[in-house]
Amino acid sequence: MLKNQLAEYFAIHRQDMIDDISALIAIQSDRQDPLPGKPYGEGPAACLDKALAIASRMGFATKNYDYYVGAVDFSDAETELDILAHLDVVPVGDGWTVTEPFTPKLVGTKLYGRGSNDDKGPAVAALYAMKALKDLGVELKKNVRLIVGCDEECGSSDIAHYYAIEKEAPCTFSPDAEFPVINTEKGAFQGRYSASFAEDKALPRIVSVDAGTKINIVPDKCISVIEGMTAAELASYLEEAAAATGAAFTAAEKDGLVEITCKGYSAHASTPDRGNNAITASLTLLSMLPIADSEGYRALLAMDRLFPHGDWYGEAAGIAMCDEISGKLTNTLDIFHYTLTSLEGATDCRASLCATDENLTDVIRKNTEDLGLTLDPACALREPHHVPAESPFVQTLLKVYEQYTGKKGEPIAIGGGTYAHHLKNGVAFGCTFPWSEDNHMHGDNEFVEMDELLLCAQMFAQVIADICG
């Protein structure tokens, strides 16, 4: 029986998988400045080279699509199944304690390192699923193609490039989310807000606020600079804000100013409730301070009114909504920059299936303008994605999930967007199980549980056999 053969195969090749994942983790592959022939910089290109070299070593044919994506083919038959994974990662924070972000370390059954779970580990699991079938002599009538991209975290321009060249396979899954199977992905609305104003020299005043690196990451750190108050005068306000938000605040005097550091903890923007947003926590603090009235301070308070701390569902902004299939809309303020003459902020909203430009974009635009802020005119809703649960492909994935876990599987909806979002018959399948421990995806001390990843690889192999055999 194939299931037993796969279990034995992956028990033998466990360390091989760990070694190959570790080789990819060791390459820092967050998006960098473009270079000639390398659209995302040296790191992602080097990681793609390494991944394709591993696949070539296994005996598979590979193709590099201009360093946007790479493809690995099982055979030269017509492709029936695409598997979409990615090698790029989000930037790292400064709170890693188990190991350095790009120094893979196995602790028990957990392999630590940036990208171990998102998405280098799953990419290698899919590759080894193909290798297992090859080594076990399983005949496939149709081809399975593993596609590894380099820009999933920053907009998926890599996949757009690929599908401008190649056609979609009849079936596609991405091992970049959760089990049992994700057939619904919420829509997206990335709001960019701004205001300009004359400098006001009345004291106390806010000189600057800076936080956030990526729009899809709840920020864990925010730095605010205050003029006209001492650290001692601020102390009680910091204590009050910490009690109200659960974030930690520290203040240090320098050159006649006070620098306030707010420390929360990061999370993926699709699950903002799992983090503690350092921007909105800082806005809570700043709104408490006896700051002199000014046009700039009023603009900052307007942002606090639109996106108050702990409001993950867009209630204050007037865009809260929910439907039976996809659940509640989520909204999080993830980038914020304030100076003496300007303000800029960016939000990541994951919109329910019932969202439209009329009930989301138009509403938030009006409420923003009513508070004296500007929403970028280009901001618009990206439509949600849904593959019917009764489709044969979804049912095949659920059958494999139940066969290998012994658990009943039902399709689910997520706020995150995967590579499958724009594909007609694309879904996400793994690699996080309903019972998985929090793997700190996009956060400090990210890890992948190797026992679970080996099970994923077996399931991927079974899916390939069922779809392409």
**Rg estimate, integer Å:** 24 Å
Write down the CATH topology of the largest domain.
Answer: Aminopeptidase
Helix content: 25-40%
Structural class computed from helices and strand pairing: alpha+beta
Provide the domain count.
Answer: 2
Biggest sheet details: 8 strands, antiparallel
Q: Class of the largest domain in CATH?
A: Alpha Beta
Give the CA-CA distance, first to last residue. Answer: 15 Å
Present the secondary structure layout.
Blueprint: H1 2-12, H2 14-25, H3 42-57, E1 61-65, E2 69-73, E3 79-86, E4 105-107, E5 110-112, H4 120-135, E6 143-149, H5 157-163, E7 171-174, E8 177-178, E9 181-185, E10 187-196, E11 205-211, E12 217-218, E13 221-227, H6 231-245, E14 248-254, E15 257-263, E16 267-268, H7 278-288, H8 295-306, E17 322-323, E18 327-328, E19 330-338, E20 342-351, H9 357-370, E21 374-375, E22 385-386, H10 392-405, E23 411-414, E24 426-428, E25 431-432, E26 447-449, H11 450-468
Parallel strand pairs: 3-6, 3-7, 7-24, 8-25, 9-23
Antiparallel strand pairs: 1-2, 2-6, 4-5, 5-26, 9-22, 10-20, 10-21, 11-13, 11-19, 12-16, 13-15, 14-15, 17-18, 19-20
Helix pairs in contact: 1-11, 2-4, 4-11, 6-7, 7-8, 10-11
Put the structure in a nutshell.
The chain has 469 residues and is of the alpha+beta class. The chain contains 11 helices and 26 strands.
Protein architecture, described:
The chain is α+β, with helices and mostly antiparallel strands and 469 residues long. The chain has two domains: 2-186 and 384-468, Zn peptidases (Aminopeptidase, 3-Layer(aba) Sandwich); 188-375, Alpha-Beta Plaits, CATH 3.30.70. The chain is 31% helix and 26% strand. The chain contains eleven helices and 26 strands. It has helices at residues 2-12, 14-25, 42-57, 120-135, 157-163, 231-245, 278-288, 295-306, 357-370, 392-405, 450-468; strands at 61-65, 69-73, 79-86, 105-107, 110-112, 143-149, 171-174, 177-178, 181-185, 187-196, 205-211, 217-218, 221-227, 248-254, 257-263, 267-268, 322-323, 327-328, 330-338, 342-351, 374-375, 385-386, 411-414, 426-428, 431-432, 447-449. The strands form seven sheets. An eight-stranded antiparallel β-sheet has the order 14-15-13-11-19-20-10-21, with helices on one face. A six-stranded mixed β-sheet has the order 1-2-6-3-7-24, with helices on both faces. A hairpin with a 3-residue loop joins strand 19 (330-338) and strand 20 (342-351). Helix 2 (14-25) runs antiparallel to helix 4 (120-135), helix 4 (120-135) crosses helix 11 (450-468) and helix 7 (278-288) crosses helix 8 (295-306).
